Structures are given as C-alpha cells and as structure tokens.
Amino acid sequence: MPKAPAEHVAEFLLDFLPGLLPKPADSVVQSALGTFKDTLGEFLKQPRVRRQLLETAQGAESDFRARARGKFPNDEIIQAVASFPLFDRELFQAALRSLPDHLHEDYLADHLKQYIADDWQGKFTPAELREAAALYLNCLRVRLLKVDGYADLVARLAILRTDERTEQILAIVRELLELVSALIAKSQPAQTVLASLFTIPPPVADFTARQKELETLKTSFKNGAVITGLSGGGGVGKTELARKLAQELADDYPAARLEIDLRGASENPLTPEDAMRRLLEPFYPNQKLPDDPNQLRGLYRQTFAKHKSLLLLDNAADAAQARPLVPPPPSAAIVTSRRYFSLSDAGLSEPLRLEALTEEEACDLLRAASPKLRNAPADEVNRLAALCGRLPLALRVAAALLEDRPDWRPADLLARLADERSRLKRLKRDSDPDLDVEAALNLSYALLDDDLKARFRQLGVFPAPFLKISAAAVWFGTARRPPSAVSETDDLLGKLITRSLVNISSAPVGEGPAGEALFAYSLHDLTRLFALARLEEDPAEAGQTILRHAEHFLEQASAADDLYQQGGEHILPALASFRFLYPHLSAAFARLAARHADPAADRWLSDFPGKCAYLLELHLPPRERIPLLEAALAASRRLGDRKDEGIHLGNLGLAYADLGDARKAIEFYEQCLTLHREIGDRRGEGNALGSLGLAYAALGEARKAIEFHEQALAIDREIGNRRGEGNTLGNLGNAYLVLGDARKAIEFYEQCLTLHREIGDRRGEGNALGNLGNAYLVLGDARKAIEFYEQQLVIVREIGDRRGEGADLANMGAAYKSLGEKDKARALWGQALAIFRAIESPHARKVESLLARLDGE
Question: Do 226 and 348 form a contact (C-beta atoms < 8 A)?
Fold first, then answer.
C-alpha cells in the first residue's frame, strides 16, 4: 500500500544520518567510521527512536496543515504540498538533503512546481507554492530539533563531513561514539516502558471517508465509544476507524494509548482478567501483578484513574468481555466488535454501526490506494468499487492486487472479479494474510454453532433484500411449517444481526396483514457470496434451499398478480410488491434453468410466466420476456403439460408482436390455437383468436382481423370472461378504425371503457381512453382527443405501463401537431422516443421519423 508522507520522511531520516559520513581513503579512518556507523545504526533501530522520527514527521505534516489553513485560503495548495511525498519520494529526499544547509525552500518549491504542474496548473501561483513549501519545511525543521540527540548529531556530522584532517576526523568520531552510546543507554530503559505505553498504530495510509462517522464519534465521545460492523462483520473498517479516532484524540490522553486484540472472533477470546494483565504490564514492568481477580480489578481501576489513558479494545466478543475493561475517568475506551451490543451502562456512547462506504467514498479509497486508479476512467473505478461491495478491506485488496502486477490495467482486474463464483477467492493477496476477504468473513462464520451456520449459509440464496416471511419459507418450507416457525425465524435473524452477518433496514418497508411493521433484511454482497459458496458445498442442501426460495417467491408473485387484476386501489401495491420480488424471481430462474433435467425445476420454469403474466409483461420489455417464455415452453414439453404449452406459445406470440414481428407472432398463435382446440380449452382458444386478430390488424388486414375478433368475442361471452370481452371490444374498435369507420370504432371503445371500469381494470380503462382519443383525432376533433389522452396518461403512469405511456405521448404529440402547436408536439414526441428506446419498441423508428419531418418543416 502507498505510504503516507510522514512515513516517507521518517524512512529517509533513518537513512539520512549515515549518509552524511565521509568516505576517506585512510584505512584507519575507514575502520573508525565503520564502527561508528554500526553504533549509529543500532541507535536508529531503537523502537523509541523510530517512533519519535515517525511522530516527528506526522507532527510536522499536522502542524503544516493547521498553520496553512489560517494562511492560505486555497485548499488545493495545502493538499498539494502536504501530499507531495506520497507521490515522489526521491524528489522529496533530495530536498531533505538540504537540511544541513538550512532547508532550501526554493529547491523544493521548484521541484514541486515541476511535478504538480499537470495536476494543479492554474490552481495557485508559483509564489504561493514557494511560500507553502517554505512553511512545510519550517514545520519539519522545528519538529526535528526536538528529537533527542538529533540536533547535536547533525551539527557534528556536518563538521565531520567538511573536515579533511585525519586526526580531527578520528577525534570527532570518538566524540560521536560517546554521544551515540550515551543516547543508546538513555533510550533503552525508557524505550521499553514508553513504546509499550503507546501501542495504538496510526490508521492505514490510505484511510479515507468516514468523516461523518468520525465526527459523530467525536461529538458523542465522553468515556469512550463502541464501533460495530453492520456489513458482514469483517472488513468494514471498524479497527481503522477506531485508530483514526484515537489519532485525533491522542493529545487528550498523554499517559498511554494502548491497543489490545480481545480475540472475540476466535474460539478462545481473552478473558477480562487476561486482558487486564496485558494492559497493566506496561505500567509495572518486571513486577508481579496480583493473582486474585478482585485485587487485579482494583489495580486496573486505580491505574487508569491515575494515568489518563486511551484504550482501544479491539475485536470484543461481547458486552460481558468488554464491560470490565472500560476504564474509569479520566481514561476512556474505544471498543470494536463484530457483534452489536451496548455499553451505555458503562458510560460509553451508543454503538455506531458501520455500513459499507458510499460509492464516492469507495472510489476515493481506491484512488488513494492505487496510483493506477488515480487517473482511471470513472466508470472503471465505479465498477471496481461495486464488485468489492464498497467494503474497505475488499477495496484495499483489489488495489494491492492491481499494484502487485505491473502488467495489469484496471480492466484486467475487473475481468478477473466479474464472475461471482470466483470473486471471493480472487479478493486475496497471497503474500499478506491481512488482505484476505474470505478469511475475514470466515472468522465470524466459524464462531456459529452448526444450526446457525446452516441458517446463515441458506440465506445466501437471497440476491436482494427479503422479508422475515421469506427467511421462514427458506428455512422451514411453505408446507407443514411448524407453529413455532415465526418466532424461531425472528430469534435466528436476531442472532445473525447481532453478529453483523445480516443487515436490517433502518425503517419499516411496509405493513403486514395485521398492521405489523415489516422490515427488510439483507446480506452484504460479499457476505452473500461467502454464504452461497458454503451452501454449495452440499449439493443436496443447496438444491432444497434453492427450490424453497424459488417456490416461495413465485407464490408471492402470483399473489401480487392476482391483486393487480383486482384493479382500483390494489394496482399500486401490487406493482410495488412485484418490483421488490423480481430480483429473487430472476435469480431463481437462472438457477433452475441450469437444472432443467429436474422435474421440480421444470415445473417452476413452466409455471413462472403464467402465474404473474400481467405484472411480468409490465415489468419486462418483450426481448427480455422471450428467454423466460422459451424456457417455460421447453419445460412444459418435457413435463407433457399441453395446457401450459399452449399458454407459452400464445405469450411468445405476444412478445414477438410487441417487437413488431407480426409474421412470427402468427406462427406461434396458430400453434397455440390448434393445441387449445385439441385439448378443449375454450378460454385459451378465445385468447388465441384474439391474438391472431391483433396480428392481422398489424399487417393491415382489418377484415381478417375482425373475423378473428368476432369469434373471440363469442367465446368470451360464452365462458363469462369479462376482461377478455373488454379487450376484444377494444380490438374490434381498432379494426374498424383502420377501415376508416371511426363512428363504429367509438361504439366499441365506449362499450370497452364501460366494461373495464365496471371490473376495475385500470389498464383496460387506459387503453380504451387512448383508443377513443385516436378515433376523435381521426374525426378531426383534436381537442377532444387530447382530453382522452390526458386521462389515459394519468392511468398508464399510475400502473407503470411504459409501452402505453410512450404510445399515449406519441398520440398526444400528433394531436398538438394537427393544431399547429409544433413545440408541444416536439416535446411530447421526444418523451415518447426516450421511452420507446428504453423498452426497445419498434415504434421508436416511427417517432424518429415524425421528429425528423417536423424539424424539416
């Protein structure tokens, strides 16, 4: 991962002092200098010294940002200068080599100007850049002079480097050896205690986003905070956010800042007493701590009441483990956990539940973590963020994989992550066990008991949010479900929610039959892939779970379709319900289509289009319906179900008719008619006749169309199919309108409108209103036509009929064109064209032609 500017500076300083040594030819001097270099290297390797150098560099950057905000109104220049070392370590090191020569600000400013000209050109002037660089280096110089022994070493080494007399060099080397030996002796005992009292590392160098959460934590922070993970538990960034919070609060806790892994995601979490000992040991080196638990707790509280310290209690198992570790004031604690729990009784703020990053935040993290992505096209970065589920760990893994391969472009990584089945396996960096998304998720899974493991992996079949009733159906089936299923489902979901393996909507998404609030549940994308992979390890369990999921959602879709057909106030709830259900139906279709040799799968595939026919037609454009119908037709034939076969033939004809291919539609309708007559299905026969009438009307053969519609009308009335009767009346009106008999067409349309209003069929009502508008436009009464079109527009938008909306807008445009109102016509045709293109309607070409002619007038 890229290093922060401060890390670059600290690394350079560790190499800087030895680099000042001269290289004389005299062997005696060389030997003396070699001894000194070894001693100096030992000093620089002291953890305390390394930490001081890093903290110095971090402090210098912080000082610069703080001082620059008050001096430069231009945020870009502050960001450019502060982040410069992140991009080009060599140039920055070259600038730092001027430290003994009083920090040549001009040198750094010139290089900065050359480097960042492309990225920041025009954002600030060269003079502003030079001034900002001078301020940055001044902050670094001030901080460096405070590091133990640094100022003396630099001064003496500078003299040593310029002196050419052997005797003088040897004398200075002896002095330096004494100085460094004294510094080592001084730092060693203090280092052991000091380093062990400040063990919270800074957050990762590419830490980004989470500003809203950070401000929330800082605002509510009194004695501490609890951070839990909502999206999959592992990898959501709890620990890094906690470290960032600790970094921002560091100055308030001067005595100690300690991090401890409570191992809550392991099978053997630390006991509170073990954790207390580890946190107390740095305060009492080489001393025996009390064996008695009560005495140990007393010493723990006494120590942190006396020494104002900040504790990061990372990866807590539960409240019982963390509660005894919350220190008394003035000390404070930050607790992270994969489980959701509150420690408000111990004085900590209410838990903050982390979700995945926003799209913008995820893209920012990717660009910060990978230089290859900084100038990559936005759509590639967005797609990569989406494939990683906007999970911080997954994003960092993806960035690391991209940087590990010099020959990879972002497109190469996107191609490797595209397949859901292998994505988790690929989101892993072999050389770094901390960058393994699947391993992070497995920690949470391993802690579940066998029953809860089974319940969790079965939830992998849900590709989108689901309701509690759906979880119950997948876990217990729809038939012979035990009376306790509802309460058991609630308990099981609760356990998975508290373990951050299942998410719950922040507000109800609707009401149940008894008025109860309904919440939506979901799994983070990568968590779902993990669960599904575990499920597929047992083909029998996977098969049963997939079938239960498919049958449940088809049952729900059928109920929504029935509700839609009731019309009136039921239409909008039915449409909303189907939109919620469709991602599950689509996933079920894909899974069962791959198992077509299974009779149960074939039964579902054959039932699917017919059980939600009305809503499916509204929801999908014809080109997307055809594969579903072809699969259904093949399944019905394998099952020997002739009635379903006829239904699918008819629906395939309708889909091709919607695409404008009337000849192909007629082929399917004729097969459908023959089959329904063979099995004596009068309703199916009537539907096939009506469909043939529509197809011939589309070909301009109105007389033949009327013959088919009259046969269909007789059957509709014979069997009491009122909806079919209304549709056929409208179709007869259309045929007479094609023949030029608008008055007779209006008679049929008015009968059609009355019937559809009686049965509450809003879609049929809308079609009748539109047809009346067409008839009056033919009669030359454009104003009356527009009245009907406007009534139709309200209905088609209400029920989500995109094809009907496009046709209505196109017809209304024609009416306004006939009135000479060309601007209105152009606007309406433009809206219609956008809809027709979106649903792949052949009518798009006709509207394009109308617009072209209008523009040419």
Answer: yes
Alpha-carbon separation of residue 227 from 32, 237, 813 (angstroms): 55, 10, 57
DSSP string, 394-433: HHHHHHHHHHH-TT--HHHHHHHH--HHHHHHHSB-TT-T
Q: Quote the radius of gyration of the chain (alpha carbons, Å).
A: 37
Separation CA 316–CA 318 (nearest Å) = 6
* Regions in the chain scoring below 70 on pLDDT: 1-54, 80, 82-127, 129-130, 141, 144-195, 205-206, 223-234, 431-432, 434, 479-481, 568, 596
Distance CA 849, CA 813 (A): 13
The dihedral sign for the CA sequence 534, 536, 541, 542: positive
Could you tell me how many residues make up the chain?
A: 857
Chain center to CA of 687:
45
324 burial via Cβ count (<10 Å: 0-12, 13-18, 19+): middle
Q: Give the residue from 143, 155, 138, 139 showing the smallest Cα distance to 17.
A: 155
- For the chain, the maximum distance between any two Cα atoms, rounded to a whole number of angstroms, is 123
How far apart (Å, rounded) are the C-alpha atoms in residues 396 and 387? 13
Q: Is 644:684 a contact under the CB 8 Å cutoff?
A: no
**For 760-842, where are the alpha helices, taking DSSP H only?**
762-778, 782-799, 802-818, 822-838
Cα dihedral 598→603→608→612 (10° resolution): -160
3-state secondary structure of 314: strand
Contacts of 251 (CB under 8 A, 6+ apart): none
Using the structure block, give the residue that is written with the tokens 């033919």: 778
Pairing assessment for the beta strands 309-316 and 510-511 based on DSSP bridges: unpaired
Residue 557: C-alpha distances to residues 152, 502, 551, 596, 714 (Å)? 80, 24, 10, 21, 31
pTM: predicted TM-score of the whole model, two decimal places: 0.59
Q: Can you tell me the distance from the alpha carbon of 833 to that of 849, in angstroms, rounded to the nearest whole number?
A: 10
Give the whole-angstrom CA distance, residue 324 versus residue 487: 33
Amino acid in the structure at residue 177: L
Q: Give DSSP secondary structure letters for 356-367.
A: PPPHHHHHHHHH
- 597-645: per-residue pLDDT in tens? 789 999 999 999 989 988 888 888 888 999 999 999 999 999 999 999 9
How many Å apart are CA 607 and CA 529, to the nearest integer? 28
Cα–Cα distance, 563 to 771 (Å, whole number): 26
With both helix axes pointing from N to C terminus, report the angle between 642-658 and 622-639 in degrees, rounded to the nearest 10.
160
Helix, coil or strand: residue 329: coil
Task: Give the whole-angstrom CA distance, residue 81 versus residue 824.
Answer: 55
Range list of H helices, 204-329: 211-220, 238-249, 272-280, 293-306, 319-322
Q: How far apart are CA 387 and CA 269, in angstroms?
A: 33
**What are the residues whose beta carbons fall under 8 Å from the beta carbon of 823, sequence distance 6 or more?**
none
Kindly report the number of other CB atoms within 10 A of residue 808's CB atom.
29
Q: Is the dihedral of CA 379, 380, 384, 387 positive or negative?
A: positive
Q: How far apart are the first and last CA of the chain?
A: 62
Give per-residue pLDDT as tens, 86-123: 334 444 444 444 333 333 445 444 544 454 444 545 56
- Report the C-alpha gap between 623 and 398 in whole angstroms: 36
Sign of the C-alpha dihedral computed for residues 504, 490, 572 and 733 taken in this order: positive
Residue in 553, 599, 57 with CA at minimum distance from that of residue 545: 553
The one-character DSSP state at 538 is: S
